[in-house]
Amino acid sequence: MPFFSINPARLRAKMSDVTTAEFNEEGKYLRKVRSFVLREGRLTKGQAAAMEQQWPLMGLDYSPEPIDLAQIFGREADTVLEIGFGMGASLVEMAKASPELNFIGIEVHKPGVGACLSDAAKAGVTNLRVFHHDAIEVLENSIVAGSLARVQLFFPDPWHKKRHHKRRIVQTEFAQQIRRTLKIGGVFHLATDWENYSEYMLEVLGAAEGYQNQSTTGDVVQRPEHRPLTKFEARGHRLGHGVWDIMFERID
Question: Which InterPro entries match (predicted)?
Fold first, then answer.
């Protein structure tokens, strides 16, 4: 399968710094770099207004204490968590298309949070909550074990140079952090436009304890209907570029 890449500068406008974690070459968690403090960015008037008006309704202030999903959403329902939602367009689309599910997004870039809240309010979405915080801390401290039906990680930074692979978020320890949050039968869904990264993801998750690949061929899956096709991705498909979806189920 030839290597292609959708325009990374445009597609990854929603992907930058999905977490502030850093790992060593064995996948061991090293430290947290509080880069999200530096990623406040300049909000548009609409984003600023959304932060002021919608955060009390949809924002989740980080606390080291586990959150109560039933209390937050006012109901019992399967919950989907997305790490690094960028500007939030696809997350809002998913939440609107699946009102029977609860959705939580985590993003360190404040303008992206504001844009997501703005779009959610315009779309009348009520089943979405967002964190403006480090994903690793949220996973470690805020999410109850076995409480999620799906965790999504779409188009994370590939750190394509080999010497930078240790900076990739997908590592053995990270896979087990995700597994802890998933219920049995829950799914870790990843997507990337770098074939090399997809192969790396498959290697890491294929060796991870407690997971099973949902692909019948043991590699990637077709894009599921629940993941919206972005306009940049659609353009890439027309040009023959590739995107690889990977879905692993927690079995233990």
Answer: SAM-dependent_MTases_sf, tRNA_(Gua-N-7)_MeTrfase_Trmb, tRNA_methyltr_TrmB_bact
Position 29 in a domain: no
What domain range is 62 assigned to? 53-250
Q: Could you give the residue ranges of the DSSP H alpha helices within the chain?
A: 8-11, 45-58, 69-73, 89-97, 110-123, 135-137, 172-181, 195-206, 231-238
Taking only the tens place, the pLDDT of each residue in 151-192 is 999 999 999 898 999 999 999 999 999 999 999 999 999 999
157 is an annotated ligand-binding site residue:
yes
The question of whether 219 is a catalytic residue gets the answer no
The predicted model scores a pTM of 0.85
**Is 44 inside a domain boundary?**
no
State the catalytic residue, choosing from 17, 119, 157, 245: 157
Residue 32 counted as an annotated binding residue: no
Kindly state the tokens that stand for 3. 């290597």
Q: What share of the chain is helix, strand, coil (3-state, %, to 5)?
A: 40, 20, 40
Q: Is 4 annotated as a binding residue?
A: no
pLDDT single digits (tens) 110-130: 999 999 999 999 999 999 999
Please count the structural domains in the chain.
1
